[in-house]
Specification:
Helix 1 crosses helix 2. The protein is about 45% helix and about 10% strand. By secondary structure, the chain is of the alpha/beta class.
């Protein structure tokens, strides 16, 4: 069954990445870097440290530009973990929290703009995160690049397709995220006004922000 999207036809659009932008990465890190190695260690009778080292090496063989990187079922099958993805996702849910600046900016922006999520995370992750944190109400559309388009956000076509679906020119969209390549360089190439969220304050520049509250000063619709 195809996923239904709502079309935007009036207001300007602010697009947010999810993990590391609105939501702390503690949850996804717990899933990929703690829970999976724990299950692997238990299944094969090795230490957690050994399991974690092996699992991370296998992740890196695939890399974040591959769809499999984001596919929890792929890794469960690859490692023969004899568990369900839903059980893993639910087991780490206490690690979920929304950044304080995200909570404030979503409340403000939802009154002025149409808000969407565009994430590389699969819809399984996105749905759990947005449901648990109660933020789904803020968004007109929620897109998973890998689930909806079978591509990562490194592909310019993802941003072009999103603009087409929501009925907007790229110049009517702002995107913000914490991955310099996926969330800043690529959308900028297609004419989207993009901002790189550098929470660690490693970079400087006109289109670099330290927190989401700075976005309010940068937007010039």
């Amino acid at each position: 069954m195809g996923r239904k999207f709502l079309f935007v036809d009036r207001m300007k659009v602010i697009s947010f990445d999810l993990d590391g932008t609105l939501v702390s990465t503690d949850y996804v890190d717990a899933v990929w870097l703690e829970r999976i190695p724990e299950i692997y260690a238990s299944r094969y009778g090795i230490s957690f440290e050994e399991a974690k080292e092996y699992v991370e090496k296998e992740y890196l063989k695939i890399g974040p530009e591959a769809l499999e990187w984001y596919d929890l079922d792929y890794w469960i099958e690859k490692f023969d973990l004899n568990t369900k993805s839903e059980d893993i996702l639910k087991s780490c849910i206490e690690k979920l929290y929304l950044y304080t600046d995200a909570s404030e900016i979503l409340e403000k922006f939802s009154k002025k703009y149409e808000l969407i999520i565009l994430s590389n995370a699969s819809h399984r992750f996105i749905e759990i995160e947005t449901d648990f944190l109660g933020i789904k109400k803020y968004f007109r559309n929620i897109f998973s690049s890998v689930s909806d388009f079978k591509k990562t956000k490194k592909d310019e076509d993802v941003y072009k397709k999103v603009c087409k679906i929501i009925g907007k020119n790229s110049s009517d969209v702002v995107h913000v995220g914490d991955n310099y390549e996926f969330d800043y360089v690529v959308p900028s190439k297609v004419g989207i006004k993009a901002f790189y969220l550098d929470r660690k304050e490693n970079m400087n520049g006109e289109n670099i922000i330290r927190n989401l509250l700075e976005l309010e000063e940068k937007i010039n619709f």
